[in-house]
Design goal:
The chain is of the alpha+beta class. It has one domain. It is built from six helices and twelve strands. Strand 1 and strand 2 form a beta hairpin. The relative contact order is 0.24.
Length: about 210
């Protein structure tokens, strides 16, 4: 079997055991990281800002991923800041961030529901949602991983447990190895529509751009 056919078959593979990927990303052809569900914790450090904050990273199977993201937003409070992230038309590891401050969480969640397909299946779109009351942040990144930054992760861990996502001390996530992103021109246009609906302006920083 030639290499092009092998790559085509690899890119068409979206299920690994009980774990289902969205269309947004695939592990590299050599499968350096086998996708599986779970979450891991560590300490996020930003020495320049003098910041040290617990964080968790979660890989959630596609059929539960969007609902889990929305539920993780609840501990942030009723009013949030939002950053929409795009790498459409950008070089690798480069993206633009657009911010909307002080938006009602329920209103933003309704916008997300309208653009669910974009958030799940575009490998160049990510979202960061920040509390207005302290260092709390939830990221739904372009790899379709969920990252949480908070002084106390207990409430977020409870959300993950309700969705059947367990802590895996040895968890490797797709960004730990070679991986491939997928997008389309339609997704790029839809991202612009999402920005318009949310009402964003250009911005330059979230806690982490993982």
């Amino acid at each position: 079997m030639n290499s092009d056919l092998l790559l085509t078959e690899h890119l068409a593979t979206y299920r690994y055991g009980a774990f289902t990927l969205t269309d947004a990303v695939r592990p590299g052809p050599t499968l350096p990281v086998l996708p599986r569900e779970g979450y891991r914790t560590r300490i996020y450090r930003d020495r320049g800002a003098g910041l040290r904050l617990p964080m968790l990273s979660a890989a959630v199977s596609a059929e539960r991923l969007f609902d889990c993201f929305l539920d993780l937003l609840r501990p942030l409070g009723n009013l949030v800041h939002v950053v929409l992230e795009t790498s459409h038309g950008r070089d690798a590891d480069d993206h633009l961030d657009f911010r909307r401050t002080h938006i009602d969480r329920a209103v933003f969640a309704s916008h997300c529901c309208e653009f669910e397909d974009l958030l799940l299946n575009d490998g160049c779109t990510g979202v960061a949602v920040l509390s207005t009351k302290g260092p709390l942040e939830v990221q739904f990144d372009e790899h379709k991983l969920l990252h949480v930054y908070a002084p106390d992760l207990k409430r977020f861990r409870r959300v993950l447990r309700r969705h059947g996502v367990r802590r895996q001390a040895d968890l490797q996530i797709i960004t730990d190895g070679e991986h491939l992103h997928h997008t389309t021109d339609d997704h790029e246009e839809t991202f612009k529509q999402f920005c318009t609906r949310v009402g964003v302006a250009e911005f330059d920083r979230v806690l982490s751009d993982e």
